[in-house]
Protein backbone atom coordinates (compact mmCIF):
# COMPACT_ATOMS: atom_id res chain seq x y z
CA UNK A 1 0.00 0.00 0.00
CA UNK A 2 1.31 3.47 -0.91
CA UNK A 3 2.44 5.59 2.00
CA UNK A 4 0.19 8.54 2.82
CA UNK A 5 2.26 11.63 3.55
CA UNK A 6 0.91 14.15 6.06
CA UNK A 7 2.55 17.62 5.96
CA UNK A 8 2.87 17.68 9.74
CA UNK A 9 4.76 14.36 9.84
CA UNK A 10 7.26 14.87 7.03
CA UNK A 11 10.94 14.19 7.69
CA UNK A 12 13.78 15.65 5.65
CA UNK A 13 14.10 12.32 3.83
CA UNK A 14 10.36 12.35 3.04
CA UNK A 15 10.60 15.83 1.56
CA UNK A 16 13.76 15.00 -0.37
CA UNK A 17 12.00 11.94 -1.80
CA UNK A 18 8.59 13.44 -2.58
CA UNK A 19 9.39 17.07 -3.36
CA UNK A 20 9.90 20.49 -1.85
CA UNK A 21 6.99 22.15 -0.09
CA UNK A 22 6.17 25.85 0.21
CA UNK A 23 6.38 26.39 -3.52
CA UNK A 24 4.38 25.98 -6.70
CA UNK A 25 4.46 22.74 -8.72
CA UNK A 26 3.03 21.88 -12.13
CA UNK A 27 0.24 19.36 -11.56
CA UNK A 28 -1.19 18.29 -14.93
CA UNK A 29 -2.18 19.65 -18.35
CA UNK A 30 -5.18 21.99 -18.18
CA UNK A 31 -7.16 19.95 -20.69
CA UNK A 32 -7.16 17.02 -18.27
CA UNK A 33 -9.74 18.86 -16.16
CA UNK A 34 -12.88 19.21 -18.24
CA UNK A 35 -16.08 20.89 -17.14
CA UNK A 36 -18.32 18.52 -15.23
CA UNK A 37 -15.58 15.94 -14.67
CA UNK A 38 -13.62 14.87 -11.61
CA UNK A 39 -9.96 13.78 -11.82
CA UNK A 40 -7.97 11.90 -9.20
CA UNK A 41 -4.21 12.50 -9.04
CA UNK A 42 -1.30 11.68 -6.82
CA UNK A 43 1.27 14.45 -6.42
CA UNK A 44 4.08 14.83 -3.86
CA UNK A 45 3.05 11.47 -2.42
CA UNK A 46 -0.47 12.65 -1.54
CA UNK A 47 -3.88 11.91 -3.07
CA UNK A 48 -5.83 14.80 -4.64
CA UNK A 49 -9.03 15.40 -6.56
CA UNK A 50 -9.37 18.13 -9.19
CA UNK A 51 -12.51 19.50 -10.80
CA UNK A 52 -13.44 22.50 -12.89
CA UNK A 53 -16.33 24.55 -11.54
CA UNK A 54 -19.18 25.73 -13.73
CA UNK A 55 -17.46 29.16 -13.89
CA UNK A 56 -14.32 27.52 -15.37
CA UNK A 57 -12.15 27.77 -12.25
CA UNK A 58 -10.12 24.69 -11.37
CA UNK A 59 -10.22 23.46 -7.77
CA UNK A 60 -7.88 20.99 -6.06
CA UNK A 61 -8.85 19.22 -2.85
CA UNK A 62 -7.41 16.49 -0.67
CA UNK A 63 -9.12 13.32 -1.82
CA UNK A 64 -10.78 12.59 1.48
CA UNK A 65 -14.31 13.36 2.63
CA UNK A 66 -14.29 15.04 6.08
CA UNK A 67 -17.10 12.78 7.29
CA UNK A 68 -15.68 9.25 7.09
CA UNK A 69 -12.62 9.66 4.91
CA UNK A 70 -14.17 8.27 1.72
CA UNK A 71 -12.51 9.39 -1.55
CA UNK A 72 -14.16 12.51 -2.97
CA UNK A 73 -12.85 11.41 -6.37
CA UNK A 74 -15.62 8.79 -6.37
CA UNK A 75 -18.23 11.48 -5.84
CA UNK A 76 -20.49 13.58 -8.05
CA UNK A 77 -19.65 16.93 -9.67
CA UNK A 78 -22.33 19.48 -8.73
CA UNK A 79 -21.07 22.64 -10.44
CA UNK A 80 -19.25 24.40 -7.62
CA UNK A 81 -18.87 21.39 -5.31
CA UNK A 82 -18.37 17.64 -5.04
CA UNK A 83 -20.92 15.40 -3.37
CA UNK A 84 -19.32 12.39 -1.66
CA UNK A 85 -20.83 9.17 -2.97
CA UNK A 86 -20.72 7.48 0.44
CA UNK A 87 -23.14 9.71 2.41
CA UNK A 88 -23.76 12.68 0.09
CA UNK A 89 -21.71 15.25 2.03
CA UNK A 90 -21.12 18.24 -0.25
CA UNK A 91 -17.72 19.97 -0.24
CA UNK A 92 -17.03 23.27 -2.00
CA UNK A 93 -13.93 24.17 -3.97
CA UNK A 94 -12.33 25.91 -0.97
CA UNK A 95 -12.77 22.82 1.21
CA UNK A 96 -15.84 24.06 3.10
CA UNK A 97 -18.64 21.61 3.88
CA UNK A 98 -21.66 23.15 2.18
CA UNK A 99 -24.34 20.56 2.96
CA UNK A 100 -24.94 17.32 4.83
CA UNK A 101 -28.08 15.98 3.13
CA UNK A 102 -28.52 13.14 5.61
CA UNK A 103 -28.68 15.60 8.53
CA UNK A 104 -29.45 19.20 7.53
CA UNK A 105 -28.06 21.69 10.03
CA UNK A 106 -25.28 19.29 11.07
CA UNK A 107 -22.39 21.10 12.78
CA UNK A 108 -20.07 20.10 9.92
CA UNK A 109 -21.82 22.59 7.64
CA UNK A 110 -19.96 25.85 7.12
CA UNK A 111 -16.63 24.49 8.36
CA UNK A 112 -13.53 24.32 6.18
CA UNK A 113 -12.50 20.71 6.80
CA UNK A 114 -10.82 19.65 3.53
CA UNK A 115 -7.43 20.90 2.42
CA UNK A 116 -7.68 23.05 -0.72
CA UNK A 117 -4.67 24.16 -2.75
CA UNK A 118 -4.31 27.54 -4.52
CA UNK A 119 -4.32 27.07 -8.31
CA UNK A 120 -2.91 28.95 -11.32
CA UNK A 121 -3.20 27.97 -14.98
CA UNK A 122 -0.05 28.73 -16.97
CA UNK A 123 0.83 27.79 -20.55
CA UNK A 124 -1.78 25.05 -20.75
CA UNK A 125 -0.83 23.51 -17.39
CA UNK A 126 -2.28 23.66 -13.89
CA UNK A 127 0.09 24.77 -11.13
CA UNK A 128 -0.68 24.36 -7.42
CA UNK A 129 0.85 25.78 -4.24
CA UNK A 130 1.92 23.01 -1.83
CA UNK A 131 2.32 24.82 1.47
CA UNK A 132 3.34 23.38 4.82
CA UNK A 133 0.79 25.66 6.49
CA UNK A 134 -2.67 25.14 4.92
CA UNK A 135 -3.85 28.48 6.34
CA UNK A 136 -0.99 30.59 4.96
CA UNK A 137 -1.28 32.58 1.74
CA UNK A 138 0.59 31.14 -1.25
CA UNK A 139 3.93 32.57 -2.19
CA UNK A 140 4.46 34.69 -5.31
CA UNK A 141 4.68 33.04 -8.72
CA UNK A 142 6.67 34.57 -11.56
CA UNK A 143 5.69 32.72 -14.72
CA UNK A 144 8.60 31.67 -16.98
CA UNK A 145 8.84 34.51 -19.49
CA UNK A 146 8.96 32.06 -22.38
CA UNK A 147 5.38 31.10 -21.54
CA UNK A 148 4.15 34.69 -21.25
CA UNK A 149 5.77 36.23 -24.35
CA UNK A 150 3.30 36.74 -27.22
CA UNK A 151 6.15 36.39 -29.74
CA UNK A 152 6.95 32.88 -28.55
CA UNK A 153 4.91 29.89 -29.69
CA UNK A 154 5.05 26.80 -27.48
CA UNK A 155 3.70 23.27 -27.33
CA UNK A 156 3.26 21.54 -23.97
CA UNK A 157 4.52 17.98 -23.80
CA UNK A 158 3.55 15.96 -20.72
CA UNK A 159 4.90 12.53 -19.79
CA UNK A 160 5.14 10.39 -16.65
CA UNK A 161 8.37 8.55 -15.90
CA UNK A 162 9.05 5.73 -13.42
CA UNK A 163 12.03 7.51 -11.93
CA UNK A 164 12.58 9.76 -8.90
CA UNK A 165 11.84 13.42 -9.63
CA UNK A 166 15.41 14.45 -8.87
CA UNK A 167 16.76 12.11 -11.55
CA UNK A 168 14.50 13.76 -14.12
CA UNK A 169 15.59 17.25 -13.11
CA UNK A 170 19.27 16.30 -12.84
CA UNK A 171 19.07 14.97 -16.39
CA UNK A 172 18.30 18.53 -17.54
CA UNK A 173 21.22 19.92 -15.49
CA UNK A 174 23.56 17.62 -17.43
CA UNK A 175 24.10 19.16 -20.90
CA UNK A 176 26.90 16.75 -21.77
CA UNK A 177 24.56 13.78 -22.07
CA UNK A 178 23.23 15.36 -25.28
CA UNK A 179 26.50 14.64 -27.10
CA UNK A 180 26.33 10.95 -26.16
CA UNK A 181 22.81 9.71 -25.45
CA UNK A 182 21.29 11.88 -28.18
CA UNK A 183 24.20 11.93 -30.63
CA UNK A 184 22.07 10.54 -33.45
CA UNK A 185 19.36 13.15 -32.96
CA UNK A 186 18.68 15.53 -35.83
CA UNK A 187 19.43 18.47 -33.51
CA UNK A 188 22.29 17.17 -31.32
CA UNK A 189 24.62 15.42 -33.73
CA UNK A 190 27.22 18.20 -33.82
CA UNK A 191 29.82 19.61 -31.49
CA UNK A 192 32.64 18.25 -29.37
CA UNK A 193 32.30 15.25 -27.08
CA UNK A 194 34.54 16.82 -24.44
CA UNK A 195 34.10 20.16 -22.69
CA UNK A 196 34.67 22.24 -19.59
CA UNK A 197 31.76 23.70 -17.62
CA UNK A 198 31.11 26.56 -15.25
CA UNK A 199 28.33 27.78 -12.99
CA UNK A 200 27.23 31.38 -13.57
CA UNK A 201 25.01 32.90 -10.89
CA UNK A 202 21.83 34.83 -11.67
CA UNK A 203 19.31 36.66 -9.48
CA UNK A 204 16.90 33.71 -9.85
CA UNK A 205 19.22 30.71 -9.95
CA UNK A 206 22.20 29.83 -12.09
CA UNK A 207 23.45 28.88 -15.55
CA UNK A 208 25.38 25.66 -16.04
CA UNK A 209 27.21 26.09 -19.33
CA UNK A 210 30.10 24.96 -21.47
CA UNK A 211 33.01 27.37 -21.47
CA UNK A 212 34.28 26.47 -24.93
CA UNK A 213 31.19 25.85 -27.07
CA UNK A 214 27.97 27.75 -27.64
CA UNK A 215 25.18 27.40 -30.14
CA UNK A 216 26.24 23.97 -31.42
CA UNK A 217 24.58 21.34 -29.22
CA UNK A 218 22.84 21.25 -25.82
CA UNK A 219 25.48 23.67 -24.52
CA UNK A 220 23.82 25.40 -21.56
CA UNK A 221 20.91 25.23 -19.17
CA UNK A 222 19.51 27.81 -16.78
CA UNK A 223 17.95 26.66 -13.50
CA UNK A 224 15.38 29.14 -12.17
CA UNK A 225 13.47 29.52 -8.91
CA UNK A 226 10.59 31.97 -9.36
CA UNK A 227 8.05 30.47 -6.98
CA UNK A 228 8.15 27.36 -9.17
CA UNK A 229 11.37 25.54 -10.10
CA UNK A 230 12.05 25.28 -13.82
CA UNK A 231 14.83 25.06 -16.37
CA UNK A 232 15.35 26.77 -19.70
CA UNK A 233 17.64 25.51 -22.44
CA UNK A 234 18.21 25.92 -26.16
CA UNK A 235 19.15 23.48 -28.89
CA UNK A 236 20.39 25.01 -32.18
CA UNK A 237 18.26 24.29 -35.22
CA UNK A 238 19.27 24.44 -38.89
CA UNK A 239 17.36 26.69 -41.28
CA UNK A 240 15.78 23.59 -42.82
CA UNK A 241 13.79 23.17 -39.58
CA UNK A 242 11.82 26.31 -40.34
CA UNK A 243 11.81 29.84 -38.92
CA UNK A 244 12.48 30.86 -35.36
CA UNK A 245 16.14 30.07 -34.81
CA UNK A 246 17.08 27.85 -31.87
CA UNK A 247 14.56 25.46 -30.40
CA UNK A 248 13.94 26.08 -26.72
CA UNK A 249 12.60 23.97 -23.87
CA UNK A 250 11.14 25.05 -20.55
CA UNK A 251 11.06 22.03 -18.26
CA UNK A 252 9.51 21.19 -14.89
CA UNK A 253 9.56 17.92 -12.93
CA UNK A 254 6.90 17.27 -10.28
CA UNK A 255 7.05 14.25 -7.96
CA UNK A 256 4.09 11.89 -8.21
CA UNK A 257 5.58 9.88 -5.36
CA UNK A 258 9.10 8.86 -4.36
CA UNK A 259 9.60 6.78 -7.51
CA UNK A 260 7.50 8.44 -10.24
CA UNK A 261 7.67 11.86 -11.87
CA UNK A 262 5.28 14.04 -13.82
CA UNK A 263 7.45 15.75 -16.43
CA UNK A 264 6.46 18.90 -18.31
CA UNK A 265 8.27 20.22 -21.37
CA UNK A 266 7.21 23.36 -23.22
CA UNK A 267 8.89 23.28 -26.64
CA UNK A 268 9.09 26.77 -28.03
CA UNK A 269 10.47 29.05 -30.73
CA UNK A 270 10.39 32.81 -31.12
CA UNK A 271 8.09 33.36 -34.10
CA UNK A 272 5.20 35.60 -35.08
CA UNK A 273 2.90 36.18 -38.05
CA UNK A 274 3.20 33.70 -40.90
CA UNK A 275 6.39 32.24 -39.38
CA UNK A 276 4.36 31.17 -36.38
CA UNK A 277 1.99 29.24 -38.62
CA UNK A 278 4.91 27.58 -40.46
CA UNK A 279 6.59 26.57 -37.20
CA UNK A 280 3.43 25.08 -35.75
CA UNK A 281 2.72 23.17 -38.97
CA UNK A 282 6.26 21.80 -39.16
CA UNK A 283 6.19 20.82 -35.52
CA UNK A 284 2.98 18.82 -35.74
CA UNK A 285 3.81 17.17 -39.06
CA UNK A 286 7.54 16.49 -38.74
CA UNK A 287 9.39 17.66 -35.64
CA UNK A 288 7.14 16.41 -32.85
CA UNK A 289 7.84 12.73 -33.55
CA UNK A 290 11.59 13.41 -33.51
CA UNK A 291 11.33 15.17 -30.17
CA UNK A 292 9.39 12.29 -28.69
CA UNK A 293 12.18 9.97 -29.84
CA UNK A 294 14.70 12.05 -27.88
CA UNK A 295 12.48 12.01 -24.80
CA UNK A 296 12.15 8.25 -25.11
CA UNK A 297 15.94 7.94 -24.93
CA UNK A 298 15.90 9.91 -21.67
CA UNK A 299 13.02 7.86 -20.27
CA UNK A 300 14.64 4.51 -21.00
CA UNK A 301 17.95 5.59 -19.46
CA UNK A 302 16.42 7.05 -16.30
CA UNK A 303 13.92 4.24 -15.72
CA UNK A 304 16.71 1.66 -15.92
CA UNK A 305 18.82 3.43 -13.30
CA UNK A 306 18.69 1.91 -9.82
CA UNK A 307 16.69 3.87 -7.26
CA UNK A 308 19.90 4.33 -5.27
CA UNK A 309 22.07 5.12 -8.28
CA UNK A 310 23.11 8.41 -6.71
CA UNK A 311 24.58 6.56 -3.71
CA UNK A 312 27.39 4.89 -5.67
CA UNK A 313 28.63 7.60 -8.01
CA UNK A 314 32.05 8.95 -8.92
CA UNK A 315 31.39 12.48 -10.11
CA UNK A 316 33.63 14.84 -12.04
CA UNK A 317 33.67 18.41 -13.34
CA UNK A 318 30.72 17.92 -15.70
CA UNK A 319 28.52 17.20 -12.68
CA UNK A 320 28.86 20.55 -10.93
CA UNK A 321 25.28 21.49 -11.83
CA UNK A 322 23.93 18.23 -10.43
CA UNK A 323 25.95 18.63 -7.21
CA UNK A 324 24.70 22.19 -6.77
CA UNK A 325 21.10 21.08 -7.23
CA UNK A 326 21.32 18.22 -4.74
CA UNK A 327 22.90 20.33 -2.02
CA UNK A 328 20.27 23.03 -2.47
CA UNK A 329 17.37 20.58 -2.22
CA UNK A 330 18.86 18.64 0.69
CA UNK A 331 19.35 21.85 2.67
CA UNK A 332 15.83 23.00 1.84
CA UNK A 333 14.35 19.63 2.87
CA UNK A 334 16.12 19.78 6.22
CA UNK A 335 14.94 23.35 6.84
CA UNK A 336 11.35 22.50 5.99
CA UNK A 337 11.36 19.38 8.17
CA UNK A 338 12.72 21.39 11.09
CA UNK A 339 9.99 24.02 10.70
CA UNK A 340 7.32 21.32 10.60
CA UNK A 341 8.70 19.62 13.70
CA UNK A 342 8.69 22.93 15.60
CA UNK A 343 5.24 24.03 14.41
Automatic annotation (TrEMBL):
Enumerate the Pfam families for this protein.
Answer: Rieske, VanA_C
* Keywords linked to the UniProt accession: 2Fe-2S, Dioxygenase, Iron, Iron-sulfur, Metal-binding, Oxidoreductase
One of the entry's Gene Ontology molecular-function terms is: 2 iron, 2 sulfur cluster binding
The residue ranges of the Rieske domain are 24-128
Q: Does the keyword Cytoplasm apply?
A: no
Protein name as annotated:
3-phenylpropionate dioxygenase
Query: What organism does the UniProt record list as the source?
Result: Gordonia spumicola
